[in-house]
Amino acid sequence: MKRIVLSIASLAIIVSCKAQGTKDTAALKPVVITEKVLEDSDDPAIWINKNNPAESLVIGTDKDHTNGGVYVFTLDGKIDKKRTVTGLKRVNNVDIAYGLKLNSGKTDIAVATERNTNSLRVFSLPDMKIIDGKGIEVFQGEAEQKPMGIALYTRPSDGAIFAIVSRKSGPAEGYLYQYLLKDNGHGTVVGELVRRFGKYSGKKEIESVAVDNELGYVYYSDEQTGIRKYYADPAKGNEELALFGKGEFKEDNEGISIYKFDDGTGYILVSDQSANRFNIYPREGAKGNVNLHQRITSIPVSTDQSDGSDVTSISLPGFEGGMFVAMSTDKTFQLYRWADIAKKAGLRVNSNKK
Predict the structure, then answer these.
(1) Per the omega criterion (within 30 degrees of 0), is the bond before 126 cis?
(2) pTM, whole model, 2 decimals?
(3) Which band of pLDDT confidence, cut at 50, 70 and 90, is reported for residue 20?
(4) Domain range annotation of the chain
(5) Rounded CA gap, 350 and 128, in Å?
(6) Whole-angstrom Cα distance, residue 97 to residue 309?
């Protein structure tokens, strides 16, 4: 009888631990965990140094209200203090684009949303110099501003770079704004509003936005509803192409990142935030229907409540097949080797190192 009582007690402890969100022992472990930001890690982006991949960087945000920042990490997870920018007002999300045309020539950029100033902040890469003056105001004249998510779209036909921005709350139609980023003639980046688009369920908020430059689509997480898909080029109109992932998340569908192969195939990874896993969908859609994205699998990871991520299919030192990076609520970002993800989930690995 005593042995049975102990077994029941042990079972109760196990059930209690699971109810409190104890981490899955089968969860994939990262290769690197970054040093901690000061207050509240939120969203990462990967910058590839095309001349020297070993000097590529991970950019991550800290969304503190008064001393938020855009942190720069080397591939070993160390903070590059010289290039990290702090003193910002609640920086939410960040994205990266290559070759913005300025008077001084083409410049790689990181663009972050600064929620408490209702603006975008633009930094040149890799030096992280501020090149937006005092910021680019977004959702100007609207009662609801508070920018959160951002994705940068580079149009293949002319190299124009656009910022697609979401906000804390907004209307049922026209929730996202899209801005053309350009030089004002004096080396400062400004934004020209080119469209308002995107449906919103009204259930929670829209933060995560991701763009597939090559296929020309933008995806965003309408939390507790699903992932919405539109054309990224404003010239192609505002028709919603797909809404997928409905009912496939424990609570919020969050961070989106896209792993790409040169033939147009690949994977869309979406954070199942409260389940500490990522759902994976086919980038190319289904045979005969490019807008049908049915879940392939899910992979548990060791992040806690991740709502921001990025991925590259370019191999980097220590990251065969590419790198996947996701934020965790312990003020860090976790860096995973794509080859490890592929092995665990039965996915493919890009063999192209460039």
Answers:
(1) yes
(2) 0.92
(3) very low
(4) 29-345
(5) 30
(6) 16
Nearest Cα to Cα of residue 212 among 258, 243, 256: 258
Q: What are 163's two structure tokens?
A: 């910022």
Task: List CB contacts of 288: < 8 A, sequence separation 6 or more.
Answer: none
Is there a contact between 144 and 170 (Cβ–Cβ < 8 Å)? yes
Please tell me the distance from the alpha carbon of residue 143 to that of residue 138, in angstroms, as a whole number.
12
Residues contacting residue 143 through CB under 8 Å, at least 6 positions apart: none
Question: CA of 186: how far to CAs of 82, 126, 132, 163, in Å?
Answer: 26, 21, 11, 20
Residues in the chain: 354
Cα pseudo-dihedral 48, 49, 51, 53, rounded to 10: -70
In three-state form (DSSP H/G/I as H, E/B as E, the rest C), the secondary structure along 161-205 is: EEEEEEECCCCCEEEEEEEEEEECCCCCEEEEEEEEEEECCCCCC
- Cβ pair 211, 130 in contact under 8 A: no
168 φ/ψ sector (left φ>0, alpha ψ -120 to 50, else beta): alpha
At the fourth CATH level, the homologous superfamily of domain 29-345 is: TolB, C-terminal domain (2.120.10.30)
Tokens (6 digits) for 267: 């994977």
What is the percent of the chain with per-residue pLDDT over 90, rounded to a whole number? 91
